[in-house]
Specification:
By secondary structure, the chain is an alpha+beta fold. The chain has a single domain, classed as Porin (Beta Barrel). It contains four helices and ten strands. The chain has a ten-stranded antiparallel beta barrel. Strand 8 (190-207) and strand 9 form a beta hairpin. The chain is elongated, with a radius of gyration of 17 Å.
Length: 233
């Protein structure tokens, strides 16, 4: 599974991979010390994962499915003294399908890129407001790791969108929590951190079943962007 994710993510994000050539795992090993601000680093990683919570407020219909390829970048916070680059990047493969028995969408996502691996799953509940706005509430759990640390990530989010012709602008809020621990270092440490985030984006459907999207996210300590392409049947 890791090899499949690694190959697919690298193919999808080859141009960005050339730009973001720093190996996330090696970069952490090379710059981590016993006094490093791992809390700031953890918040940046949590934002990188949480970016992928949503790209619309509309649910996938049964028996259809949604499968997409996304990439996200986070501008490292000013207190992150571990990352040597200005941005941390990672592509994700995402998929979801609607389960009518429980009126809920099951979503999965994962990546294996530049020494960073993450696999996660979540549930989404969708409803319509005044026949104008689609709203989705979601919760995810992700297990992220490199050779030098693990991060157990939880996220909760709410997003609203409205569709006009082929355009679907959306606004969302989210909450990220990460339980972060180093291992195999000279001095191992752990931290638990949380942060809220705010997202604005737009999804465009140029052809039936095909969509592209882009979004900007802001938190109290960093900001980031996300873009992607997908198929929705």
């Amino acid at each position: 599974m890791k090899k499949i994710l690694s190959v697919v993510c690298s193919m999808i994000l080859f141009p960005v991979a050339l730009w973001a050539s720093t190996n996330i795992s090696d970069d952490f090993r090379d710059h981590y010390t016993a006094t490093s601000n791992i809390s700031a680093y953890n918040k940046d990683i949590n934002t990188l994962i949480g970016l992928h919570d949503f790209h619309t407020g509309k649910a996938t219909s049964f028996p259809g499915f949604d499968i997409g390829a996304t990439f996200g970048g986070v501008k490292v916070g000013s207190h992150n003294d571990i990352s040597s680059e200005n941005y941390i990047f990672a592509p994700f493969i995402t998929g979801e399908t609607f389960i009518p028995v429980v009126n809920t969408t099951l979503a999965v996502r994962g990546t294996a890129f530049n020494g960073f691996e993450s696999i996660g799953a979540g549930l989404k509940y969708n409803y319509n407001v005044l026949e104008l706005f689609d709203v989705t509430l979601a919760g995810f759990y992700d297990r992220a790791q490199t050779d030098w640390y693990t991060d157990n990530h939880l996220s909760f989010s709410a997003v609203a969108s409205a569709t006009l012709l082929v355009f679907t602008p959306y606004l969302g809020v989210g909450y990220d929590y990460g339980d972060f621990s180093t291992h195999k270092m000279a001095v191992n440490r752990s931290t638990s951190d949380e942060a809220g985030r705010w997202t604005a984006g737009v999804r465009v459907t140029p052809f039936p079943f095909l969509y592209v999207f882009g979004a900007y996210t802001k938190t109290s300590s960093n900001h980031g962007f996300q873009g992607g392409i997908g198929l929705n049947f």
